[in-house]
Amino acid sequence: MGKFNYCNLSDTEFEELCRDIMEKKLNTPLHTFTKGRDGVIDIRGNVDFS
User: Fold this and answer.
1) Of the candidates 24, 22, 19, which has an alpha carbon nearest to the alpha carbon of residue 42?
2) Which residues are paired to 50 by β-bridges?
């Protein structure tokens, strides 16, 4: 796999990329929320890690 430059991604784009990767790895849909007062996007899903 080649190297990727993530420096040009906005904070929102980076968090959405992380969500997409986690969805693939966990094989489950994840839900993102809009930016809150703290300025970050939260990701939630129903995942059983046991």
Assistant:
1) 19
2) none
pTM confidence score: 0.69
Amino acid identity, position 32: T
Contact assessment for residue 28 and residue 2, using Cβ atoms and an 8 Å cutoff: no
Query: Averaged in consecutive runs of 10 residues, what is the pLDDT profile of the chain (50 residues)?
Result: 81 87 91 74 70
> Of 43, 46, 35, whose CA–CA distance to 12 is shortest?
35
- Tell which phi-psi region holds residue 40, choosing left (phi > 0), alpha (psi between -120 and 50) or beta: beta
The Cα–Cα gap between 12 and 35 comes to 8
Could you tell me which residues come within 8 angstroms of residue 23 by beta carbon, excluding any fewer than 6 positions away?
29, 30, 45
